[in-house]
Amino acid sequence: MCGRFSLTEALNDLQEHYQFTMREDFQYTENNNIAPSQSVMAVVEVDHVRYPVQFRWGLIPPFAKDEKIGFKTFNARSETVDEKPSFKKAFHKKRCLIPASSFYEWKKISSKEKQPYSIKPASASLITFAGLWETWRNGDQLVRSCTILTTTPNDKMASIHDRMPVILDSSSYEKWLSEETPLDEVKSLLVPFPSSRMKLEEISSDFFKKST
């Protein structure tokens, strides 16, 4: 599961890392506590050119009757993503990269207590989640939304939660974004990120009170 994350990198650094073409209408704001239903930055590829976009976090499939479905679809299980009606079409045609500086998870200590953790790369400044996006129309209303794929946890994450986000290496970006990539190769990317390349830090619950 991935229900909170941060993105605090400078826009110039993001552009350099993802090699995207800047759009005049793109607006970027750093956020150290991004939650479902909020706006998130993503990178998409159109005709082999990458662009930055803003999506609402919580995928709303085209057939949805109500945008509230997005509160249940901010994550998609990689094991069934090509089968579920809400995600199947997007998995084939609308894949994206979702940058993050860190993500947060809570470890259950007791029936009343949970310890939050901040999870970051061990030797890098960016995490890249595997994402999907969709467009939903309701009359004149147009909403572009996204979801983050999850997979089984690596050894470090298993001590905290039974799921973790799918994290992509930069060498996999093109394969993930391109519609030309065979689906079996796309699926091969949906694996746990190595424990050795992640670091976990306990943080105070007060952090979330201050950043809301």
From TrEMBL:
Question: Which SUPFAM superfamilies does the UniProt record give?
Answer: BB1717-like
Question: Which GO BP terms apply?
Answer: protein-DNA covalent cross-linking repair; proteolysis
The family note in this entry says:
Belongs to the SOS response-associated peptidase family.
EC category: hydrolase
What protein name applies here? Abasic site processing protein
* EC identifiers of the protein: 3.4.-.-
> Which Gene3D superfamilies does the protein's record reference?
SOS response associated peptidase-like
One example GO MF annotation: lyase activity
Q: Which Pfam families match?
A: SRAP
Keywords, A to Z, come to: Covalent protein-DNA linkage, DNA damage, DNA-binding, Hydrolase, Lyase, Protease
